Amino acid sequence: MCKKIILFTLQTFSTTGGIQKMTRTLGHSLYRLSQTNKWNFELWSAYDKQEDLMPQYMPASTFKGFGVNRVGFVLEAISKSLRPDVIILSHINLAIIGLIIKLVNPKCKVWLIAHGIEVWRPLSFVKKTVLKHCDKVICVSNFTCEQMVKRHHINPAICEVLNNAIDPFMKLPASFIKPQHLIARYKLKPDQPVIFTLTRLASTEQYKGYEHVIQAISSIKNNYPNIKYILSGKYDAKEEIRIKNLIEQHHATDQVILTGFIEEDELSDHFLLADMFVLPSKKEGFGIVFIEALACGLPVICGNADGSIDAIRNGELGHAINVDDVTELSKCIYQHLQSPPTPAKREYLQQQCIQHFNETDYMQKLQLLLTQ
Hints:
Layout lengths: L3 E6 L8 H20 L2 E6 L17 E3 L4 H10 L6 E4 L5 H10 L4 E6 L10 H9 L2 E4 L2 H11 L6 E3 L18 H6 L8 E5 L11 H11 L7 E5 L4 H13 L6 E5 L6 H7 L2 E4 L8 H8 L4 E4 L4 H4 L7 E3 L4 H13 L4 H14 L2 H13 L1
Parallel strand pairs: 1-2, 1-4, 2-3, 4-5, 5-6, 6-7, 8-9, 8-11, 9-10, 11-12, 12-13
Helix pairs in contact: 1-14, 3-4, 7-12
């Protein structure tokens, strides 16, 4: 009998974030595997509308968007519970669906994708219960896998580490020239050193570490007075005020450029514009943005206290620093500035990243998991 697989998601196409990007790649990979193996695959999204689908990832016939119709999403999921062989929950917040389907159809395999902070905290009764009934817990990093075992006492035998892959539709550079239109937009000089951070800037999530980068810039500018720090990402009003106060407090007004949200089609160009990507975060489940930067040949500095280590392959592709040590961060940035990346270095980083985080290998691992 053919495998019947449903991937349940919260949002996949209507917003952009690490989990959404991971889910798009997962959905595309599962669709390709279903075509090769003659399986039946569908992706259901609780919050996306049908028209939100990005058709390069899969045809409309495999996608169901419920557009925040939560009741309809849950009821239809339950009504179809006798049908699938495998369901994959892309987020722990979908636990109730997995639990009900498992109770109604015990033969159905239930998988949960474990990312980061959403499973590193105390969980509700329903979420704890679904973990006990999961057939596989797919962890995006070794750190998350360790946290699942340590915090929730998950049987290590059902935990599988599946690192995220580069989005197969991400525009990767063939050469490593700084884009002139961005140099003009930000009023830069071609030889000006640029540090880049891209992340969600939320007042409720003050663990990304960009405040430490601002502080580091205030000391580095003494030796590199023309340094620029481009800090990008959507921010709320409260966080905007806090960031601007930090910039003023550390006398970095002339160094920091706060861009706000960057459109997806400009992401690669911003990685090309920079000389290094810096995000000393404490709570990255994996950090897709790190492999996106590396895939554009950009050196990476990350934290050593979370899943970021997997993204740089334990130091093979980047540098991990103590996230609470601004002096160490400053020294690491300074060392990179003294040896800016050459085109050859950037090409090497790109090739190594693609070698380790490509969709082909990702699909092979999925195939193995699905046929065990």
